[in-house]
Give the backbone structure.
Amino acid sequence: MSLVYSEEQRLLADTAAEFLLARSPVAAQRRLRDEGTAEGFDDALWKEMVDMGWSAIPFPEALGGLAFGCMGLGAVFESIGRNLSASPLLSSIVLGGTLIELAGSEAQQAEWMPLLIAGDKRVALALDEKPRHDPAATELRAERQGNGWLLQGDKSFVADGVGADAVIVVARSAGVPGERDGLSLFLVPADAPGLQVSPMQMIDSRNHAQVRLDGVRVDAAALIGQEGSAWGALDAALDRGRACLAAELLGMTQNLFDTTVEYLKTRVQFDVPIGSFQALQHRAARCYAHLHLARSAVMAGLAAMDDPKLDAAGRARLASLAKWKVGDAAHRISREAVQMHGGMGVTDELDVGLFLKRIRVAQAELGDADFHCDRYGEFVEAQ
Amino acid sequence: MTTIDDFRRETRAWLEANCPPSMRTPMPDGELVWGGRTVEFKNEDQRLWFERMRDKGWFCPDWPAEYGGGGLSPEQNAVLESEMRRLHCRPPQINLGIWMLGPVVLEFGTEEQKRELITPMARGEIRWCQGFSEPNAGSDLASLKTSAVDAGDHFIVNGTKIWTSYGDKSDWMYMLVRTDPDVPKQQGISLLVVDMKSPGIEARPIDLISGKSSFCQVFFDNVNVPKRQLVGPLNGGWTLAKALLQHERRAMSKFGEFALPNHVDLLSVAARYLPPADAGTNAEVALRARALAMAMDEHAYTLTAQRMGEEIRARQDVSGLMAIMKLVHSEQEKDKLEVLLDVMGHRALGWEGEAFDSSELALTRAWLGSFAQTIAGGSSEVQLNVIAKRVLGLPEGKQGK
C-alpha cells in the first residue's frame, strides 16, 4: 500500500488541477450560489468532467470503466476540494455507481453503468434518516407486495437528490433499526408515484434533498442485490465515498490553509505583517502539522480502497481514520482561517466563508468525526 | 554484472545466515548495545551480531570503505535497511558518533581526523556523547559560553555542558565552544572533540522528576585540548552544528522505529481499566472516546512516518514534513500518557514498591519522562518557530534573533 501518488496519478492530479482552476474556480461556485440553481452544479462542467473520463475512473473495464482506482479518484477529488467545484461525481458515480457495480445484477449493470459513466443519467443515494449519519439505524420500510415492494418512509440529506433520474433507497425489509442485517437497496425512478423530492437549502448551497416515499410501489427488478443483505455492498460503497470525500476535504483544507498563510504575510497591522507575531506563527505551524497528519490518513484511506490484500474491516478502519483525521484538521484550520482573517474573515466577500460552510457540510456527510471514531474503535476491538 | 537485485539477494542471504534469531525479536528495555571502549553484552547472540556487522563494515554501511565503512551506494544502503526491517533485525549497536558526528567529520574533517576519528567509530570502539546545551544556553544555543582559549598548540576549555546523555559513560565528546567572544554570537563558535578522560572533566548524572536519568552535567576546569581536535574551521562551528542537528533529526526518525520497545497500546490499557463499552458511566464512555481519538492520531502519525519514507524514496522534498515529526511525536506522547493517567486513575500514580505491578510503575515513569520530550532536542516552541519561518516563510518578528 503506497501513500504517495504514482506518476500516472500525479499526471491526473495535475490535469484536474489545471482544468478545474480554469473551468470551475471558486468564483464559479459563488456565481452558482448567487444564481440559486436547483441542481447546485453546472451541468456543462459535469459533461466536461465526463468527457475527461473521470466518471469511469473507479470501475472495472468490464463495466466500461478505466480501473484506475480510488487513489486516482482521490487526486481528482483533492482538486475538486481546492476549487470548491460542485458535481455529481461523488453521489452518482462513487456512491451510486459503486452500489450497482458491487450489488447490481448483470441486467442492472448493463442498463445503468453506461448511462452513469456517460453522464446521461444520474442517481442519488437516499440513506440518512436521522440528524446524524447512522446507516444501521435505517427504519424506512420495504414490504413485499405481490411481485414487488412497497416503500414507506422519509430520507433526508440526500446529496444531489434534486433532479436525479433515480434514487437508490436504503430500506429495511427485515429486522429492527440498529441491525445491519435486513437492509435492502431499491432503485426507484424519480417519476415513481408517491416519490417526492424536495430541496434542503443548506449552508454550502449544494444540491441536498429530502425524499419522501409515500407508498411507493416498485417491481422486483428494482431490488439491487439480495433482499435483506445490502450491508456489505453498502458499507463498501460508503467507504469509497468516505475516502473520496476525505480527499475533497483535504483539498479544501489545504487551500484554506495556503490562503491564510498568504494573508498572514500580507496583512499589515502595527506597521508589520501580522504573520510576524509569534502567537499567530505557532498556531499556523500547528495547523500545518495537522494538515500533514490528515494528508497521510487520506492517502492511506484511498490506498486501502484499492488494496486487494485488505479485508473489509481493514478498509473500513482506514476509511474511518481518513474521514476522522481530515475532519479534525479541517475543523481546526477553518476556525483559524476565519479568526486570522479578522473582520474580513466574517464577510461574505472573502472566499473563506464559502470554504468554512462547505467543510462543515462535508464533515457531516457520510459520518462525522464522532461516527468515525466509534467505527474505528469497533474494528480495532474486533482484531 | 551485479544489479541491485543481486545485492538484495546476497544481503538477504547474509542476514539470514548471520543475524541470530534472537536478534530478530523486539528489543526489551535496556538491551541496547552501546559501542565503546568497553562494550557490554547481555548474551552471546548480541556479541555475535555486533561483531559480524562490525566486520562487514555495516555499522556505517554507506561510509567509504577506506575508513572502515561498508562502502555501499545509497541504493544499496536502502536495500540493506529494508532487508533489515523485513527480518526485524535489531540494530547491532547504538552510537551517537555514527549518526551525528561521523557525517560531519566526513564532510568537514581533515584527512588525519577521518583516519583517527572515523575508523574507530566505524568499528564501534568509541562511545560518543554530545556537549551542546549549557545551563544558560538551551533553546538559544548560540549564546553558549563554554570557552576554548588559544594556548599555542592547544586550547584551554572552561565551562559546563548540560543534558549530555550518558556523559558519565562515554569515551569522547563532540562539543561546541566559544572561541571568539567579541563577534556576533553565531560567528564565534567552534566544534571540538575531546577525550572524556582528559584531566579537569567531571560528569555528574542529573536526577529528573521521573527519577534517575542518563542525562549528565559535565564540568570543564582548565581542560587541555590539542588543536588537531578542532573539527572544521576556527569559529566556523555553527555551520557544523546545524549540519549535525539535521543528522540528529534524521537519526531520531530512524531511531523512532525501535526507541520505544515497550510501546504502550492505549486501547488495550483502556480495555483493562475501563468497563466494557456498553456499560460504564458517561465519564467512562467519554474517556474511552478520548483514548480512541488519541490512538487514531497516533495511527495518523505512523502513516506520516511511512509516507515520509516513501516520499524520500520518490526523491520528493520532505523538508516540511521532516520539520513536524519531532513536534508531533513528542506532543502526542505527552497527550497519550495523560489520557492513560486518567484511564488508570491512581494505578498510574505509583512511584515504586509492591503495591503496583511493573507495567503500572513503568507508565508513571513514562508519563513523568514525557515532559522532557517536548523540551529536549529542540523544544516544541523552537520546532514551531522552525515550521513558521523556514517552512511557511512567515516573516521574522521585531525582536527577531
Remarks:
- Chain A touches chain B through 38 residues (CB under 8 Å).
- The radius of gyration of chain A is 21 Å.
